[in-house]
Amino acid sequence: MITRDDVIAGYRKFLDRAPESDEVISEQISSHESVEAFLASLRQSSEYRSRNGGSVAPPTGSARLSPWPHAKTITPANLESFITSSDEIGPPSSPEVEAFWHGMRYIPAARVNQKLDPFSEEYVGQQIAVYREIAARNLDQHMNELTDFAIEDHVAGANPYTHQPPPAVALHVGRVSRAIQYSGLQIGDHVLDMGCGWGTSCELMAFCGLEVTGLDINPRFVELVNTRAKRLGQKVGAVQGSFEDIPGNALYDAVLYYESLHHAIRPWETLSQVHSRLKPSGKLMLAGEPINEIWKHWGIRTDPLSIYCIRKFGWFESGWSADFISKCVKRCGFEVEYFAEEPGSIGWIMIARKVG
């Protein structure tokens, strides 16, 4: 029987790296009946053969991928070619692009000393250097984390996403619903939705009987959330702010980060902020967050989708080990009550309670 540790050890031995995501680890476990079969597949992979001087045969049906001559390794030298080749094949969610990206990883040139204190400014600075190397721009979330869209279409849609297919919407709804389920909140409790984005999480919490304040750095998202809330008659109000700047002085029963905390440069700072804005025993809810073994503690995610988003849009895409994010939450004055993996590479849910 093959285990998670076997997969990680095999990748490090034969490919000199960690698996791209928990989704890849699960796929390897389900695809092989034994450790021997799994290791054999690694030795037969194009990445292993290219690293060891062997010839690499193109995958079946890959004629459209021929302009990419770099096997499965993305580097600063071929990063722009990676983006161009990806865009020529199709959108990130397409099966063709998923096939092209399968097994890829980015190798940064910027040096990161993983023996440093992961909370130190020196370590943060080294991870920001990795971001700049990939993004080819300075880190400015007030500029780079904005999204423009036709607001009228999203106001009128059945859900704020509008453009996503039903299975994708159901995935988001399921994750947020389970976070609410495990939170123990009561009807009428007031929740602060940090980085609320399109506002689907706001609407779902309101549907469950909660009062919601959404916060986002993008004024267009704030407008969308408030306009839909007025149309739907929900107890939802959104304000513009950032992880480091929460407007007002209200105290909340809970705070939710849905697919958003990993955009925080220093997550321990925003978690300390929300700790001060929670009532006694208030709940911290994390959902749709990335747990992986790319770095010992935390750092820029190097899977192809993250690399694509960083380079193309300038988003800050980080991830953490399970041990680090647990320590981070506890460091900020919370006690972890629930922590479990959900499907997908950024599918983890954590519920924690304010102490002190």
Whole-number total of structural domains: 2
| Number of distinct helices | 15
Number of strands: 11
Helix content: 40-55%
What distance lies between the first and last C-alpha atoms, to the nearest angstrom? Answer: 44 Å
Could you give the topology of this structure?
Blueprint: H1 4-14, H2 22-31, H3 35-44, H4 46-51, E1 73-74, H5 79-89, H6 95-101, E2 105-106, H7 121-135, H8 141-144, H9 151-156, H10 166-183, E3 190-194, H11 200-207, E4 211-216, H12 219-232, E5 236-240, E6 252-258, H13 267-276, E7 278-289, E8 298-300, H14 304-313, E9 318-320, H15 322-331, E10 334-340, E11 348-354
Parallel strand pairs: 1-2, 3-4, 3-6, 4-5, 6-7
Antiparallel strand pairs: 7-11, 8-9, 10-11
What does this structure look like?
α1 packs parallel to α3 and α10 packs across α11 (200-207). It is built from 15 helices and 11 strands. The strands form 3 sheets. A 7-stranded mixed sheet has the order 5-4-3-6-7-11-10, sandwiched between helices. A two-stranded parallel sheet has the order 1-2. The termini are far apart. It is 42% helix and 17% strand. The protein is globular and about 60 Å long. It folds into 2 domains: 1-57, no CATH class; 144-354, 3-Layer(aba) Sandwich (Rossmann fold). It has 356 residues and is an alpha/beta fold.
Provide tags for this entry.
356 residues, alpha/beta, Rossmann fold, 2 domains, 7-stranded mixed beta sheet, two-stranded parallel ribbon, 15 helices, 11 strands
